[in-house]
């Protein structure tokens, strides 16, 4: 079957699971991207191409709950070199301000190229004549050019979910030119922020030598590539509805009770990733307790650290560091039944996440660098009583839209401590003024609007109508 719309991402929106009787099946892994794209895919009878996780080979295209899914298999060695290696130990740290040291290995790069080719071939097989292919994220940056070579008839869009680094950092990459040329296979390259789009256009001018004009790159063959910002968002209505439900509010109360009904709850929710600034934030909080500004009798910090990329060395080291810090803070500062930090290394259903957002008085989101950060937006969506306070890093893409948060520099421990206290002590009136403004922003710019804007612009630029898009 060939389709008018193809979405291709590293992962399929389902996981391979083994049932109790030993047979294999599929379980939906609903994330923001799935909820944004599902309605569009259904409307256009589109297909989703991606890796189902695991190392099973020879999987055929299948249907799950009415969605057409096309699996791309990876061997164990490919998972190691392409996914854990080049994607998560080279590109991820490089694109996040080199917060950790990127590793450069030629075998990983070879694997990145061959897997990108496999994805491109799969897309070429399933896209209809003149159809649209939307490529997602840093794992697949070579797909646009590879696909264009196979299928020049297609309209190709690319969206990067993580930051695009400034040229001074990107230049470190031994394969910098190939990556830029890979992306230039698209008609439209979307980023989270205008700054990322500008970084890209500047690098193309410097490194590939093409003529550029604001958001446009003019290629020698006459084609124009557009680069612009499309800040991603969440299913705002869905989160708010969940947050208003009886069961979620009941559960939020239970969470408070189980913690001994503290006056104030601070909350952090992140994948356990070194870009998220978990260590520094807990340290700042610990100092406030040690200095007597915050009392464990009436406050607690819940930190949810969702297990992530556990096969990658840097992530294992980070986990040990945080375990040690939490142990020390609770050992030094906690009392019986009153930990300073309630630390949870686990993932939770959406309902439980919403209950935690409902329970939290101060939400702390302090990444060193983050493409957007959806947790900040989800918290805002759940605060339908216009209460609660958000402390947000200036270096998260979300800071561009959530200007009324308490904005912090996560490298500045004293600055973070002051912001924690200000948010903690702010009057109800101040909190609600800020929250109302942020809620308006997110409700007007939800994930459906994001997908619609990107796809409309892609259709326009493909038809030569995209003169100067926003952003660069
Ligand atoms: C990348 C970029 C960009 C987390 N734990 C659980 C759970 N989650 C959900 C959250 C949120 C999502 O995962 C995490 O999104 P973030 O945006 O916070 O961060 P990344 O995973 O790093 O995502 C980021 C994003 O892509 C989208 O473009 O914003 O900058 O790094 O939705 O709620 N969901 C459930 N249980 C958990 O335990 N159900």
Give me some keywords for this one.
472 residues, alpha/beta, Rossmann fold, 2 domains, ten-stranded mixed β-sheet, six-stranded parallel β-sheet, 16 helices, binds GDP-alpha-D-glucose
Short structural description:
It contains 16 helices and 18 strands. The chain has 472 residues and is α/β, with parallel strands linked by helices.
What does this structure look like?
The chain is of the alpha/beta class and 472 residues long. The protein has helices at 32-44, 76-95, 106-126, 143-150, 167-170, 176-183, 194-208, 236-244, 246-258, 278-290, 313-333, 350-359, 374-382, 413-425, 428-444, 447-462, and strands at 3-11, 14-18, 24-28, 47-51, 62-64, 67-71, 127-136, 155-159, 188-191, 211-213, 216-218, 224-229, 264-271, 299-306, 341-344, 362-365, 389-393, 406-408. The protein has two domains: 3-232 and 448-462, Glycogen Phosphorylase B (Rossmann fold); 236-444, Glycogen Phosphorylase B (Rossmann fold). The protein has 16 helices and 18 strands. The strands form three sheets. A ten-stranded mixed β-sheet has the order 5-6-4-1-7-8-9-12-11-10, with helices on both faces. A six-stranded parallel β-sheet has the order 15-14-13-16-17-18, with helices on both faces. Helix 2 packs across helix 3, helix 9 (246-258) packs across helix 12 and helix 10 (278-290) runs parallel beside helix 11 (313-333). The longest helix has 21 residues, at 106-126. It is globular. The protein binds GDP-alpha-D-glucose. GDP-alpha-D-glucose binds next to helix 12 and helix 13. GDP-alpha-D-glucose is lined by residues 32, 161-162, 232, 271, 306, 347-350, 353, 370-375, 378.
């Amino acid at each position: 079957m060939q389709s008018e719309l193809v979405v291709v991402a590293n992962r399929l929106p389902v996981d391979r699971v083994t049932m109790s009787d030993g047979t294999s099946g599929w379980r939906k892994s609903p994330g923001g991207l799935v909820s944004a794209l599902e309605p569009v895919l259904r409307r256009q009878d589109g297909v989703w191409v991606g890796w189902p996780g695991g190392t099973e080979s020879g999987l055929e295209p299948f249907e799950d709950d009415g969605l057409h899914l096309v699996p791309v298999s990876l061997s164990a060695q490919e998972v190691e070199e392409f996914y854990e290696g080049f994607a998560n130990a080279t590109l991820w740290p490089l694109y996040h301000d080199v917060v950790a040291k990127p590793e450069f290995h030629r075998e990983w790069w070879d694997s990145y190229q061959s897997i990108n080719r496999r994805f491109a071939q799969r897309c070429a097989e399933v896209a209809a004549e003149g159809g649209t292919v939307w490529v997602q994220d840093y794992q697949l940056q070579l797909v646009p050019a590879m696909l264009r070579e196979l299928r020049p008839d297609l309209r190709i869009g690319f969206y990067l979910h993580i930051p695009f680094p400034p040229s001074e950092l990107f230049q470190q990459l031994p394969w910098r030119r190939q990556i830029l040329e890979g992306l230039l296979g698209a008609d439209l390259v979307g980023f989270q922020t205008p700054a990322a789009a500008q970084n890209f256009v500047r690098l193309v001018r410097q490194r590939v030598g093409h003529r550029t004009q604001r958001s446009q790159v003019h290629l020698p063959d006459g084609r124009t590539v557009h680069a612009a910002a499309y800040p991603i968002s969440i299913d705002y209505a869905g989160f708010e509805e969940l947050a208003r439900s009886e069961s979620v509010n009941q559960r939020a109360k239970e969470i408070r009770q189980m913690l001994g009904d503290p006056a104030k709850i601070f909350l952090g929710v992140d994948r356990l990733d070194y870009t998220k600034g978990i260590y520094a934030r807990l340290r700042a909080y610990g100092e406030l307790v040690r200095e007597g500004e915050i009392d464990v009798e009436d406050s607690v910090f819940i930190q949810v650290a969702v297990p992530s990329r556990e096969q990658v060395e840097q992530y294992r080291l980070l986990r040990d560091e945080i375990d040690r810090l939490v142990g020390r803070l609770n050992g030094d500062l906690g009392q019986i039944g009153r930990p300073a930090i309630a630390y949870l290394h686990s993932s939770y259903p959406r309902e439980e996440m919403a209950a935690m957002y409902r329970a939290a008085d101060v939400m702390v989101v302090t990444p060193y660098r983050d493409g957007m950060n959806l947790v900040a937006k989800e918290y805002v969506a759940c605060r339908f009583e216009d209460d609660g306070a958000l402390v947000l890093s200036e270096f998260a893409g979300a800071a561009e839209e959530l200007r009324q948060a308490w904005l912090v520099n996560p490298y500045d421990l004293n600055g973070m401590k002051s912001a924690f206290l200000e948010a903690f002590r702010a009057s109800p009136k101040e909190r609600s003024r800020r929250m109302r403004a942020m809620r308006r922003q997110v409700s007007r710019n939800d994930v459906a609007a994001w997908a619609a804007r990107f796809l409309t612009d892609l259709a326009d630029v493909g038809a030569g109508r995209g003169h100067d898009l926003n952003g660069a």
